[in-house]
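INTERNAL TRANSFER SHEET
From: sequence group
To: structure group
Subject: diguanylate cyclase

Please process the attached sequence and return the structure record in the designated field. Keep the field labels unchanged so the import script can parse them.
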Amino acid sequence: MLAFIFAAAAPLWIPIDLYAMDGDTFYPMLSLRLAFSATLIILAMWGTKCALLKAAQFRLLAFIVVCGLFYVASRLLFGGGLPEEGILFGYSFLPFLLVALLAIVPLTLVEGVAYCVVVTMFLVATELYFGTFFSIHTMGDLWLLALLGAIALLVELTQLHMLLRLYREATRDVLTGLVNRRVLIRWLTNEIEKSNQGEGPVSVLLFDLDLFKRINDTYGHPAGDAVLQSFAKLLEGRVPTSGLVGRFGGEEFLAILPGCNESEAIAIAERVGEACRSSSVIDSSGDVPIRYTTSSGVAQWREGETTVELISRVDQGLYQAKSSGRDLVALAS
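Return from structure group:
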């Protein structure tokens, strides 16, 4: 979007150039300005086709470099004159504008500092070339650039913190801290696509806390919440780091196991069940240990199976485990 805005704004300065410049300067500047605008349009059009983080970071860097090169070229065309010398004022402010614009982009501290350094390098290189680096004017520009950079970084970090908080609220279960159902579905879909491309098996485990309603009715909802938190921590600690665990809904939890076949997944589910049997949560009075167990269904993805079909099948396995007496592991058929 920034590239589109700059590309559209660049030609708008042409009438001012025409009014203030003679022909020897105007026509080279016109060519430079049109080339600058065309380059930004190409950059902007490329950006609409790629949404990956690395690509976005590269596009931002490319945008800064293109603007920086335009600044250097315009200074060279003017012979290095200072802003007080009239028309150059419309060009000399570009480094400050670039740094200020970084405030609207949610960057990390390292990224923000790196981009500010890139912008500063164009200014420093230009002043060194013209031998004006140690002038009072250049020192003032560098001081102002540093001040704008600090303000931009502060705004960036504030934005980033806000976005991360919103992302966590949108993707995490508040009670257990695990990812929610939406993230699980998206993650499982990606893993199925990888498995379909030959990157190994993927299995899922669906857990349900046995007689959880009885725990709530007997000990109260705070105790039930404590059981959910205890099980979430227990489950997360027994699933391989390559997998993902989340709260699927109510007292149901889903574990996604990339690279695990059904026998390996069954072994993990049995370890989780064994850990549950030896665990307990103390009720609010601090006297009564609350014990709980879990039933689980196990399913390995089959070729041609969709995400919905796999989840439906593992849910049938869970139903089989509960119907067979609970506190069991059942392999989905």
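Handover comment: The chain has two domains: 2-171, 181-331. Residues 181-331 form a domain with the Alpha-Beta Plaits fold (CATH 3.30.70.270).
Transfer complete.
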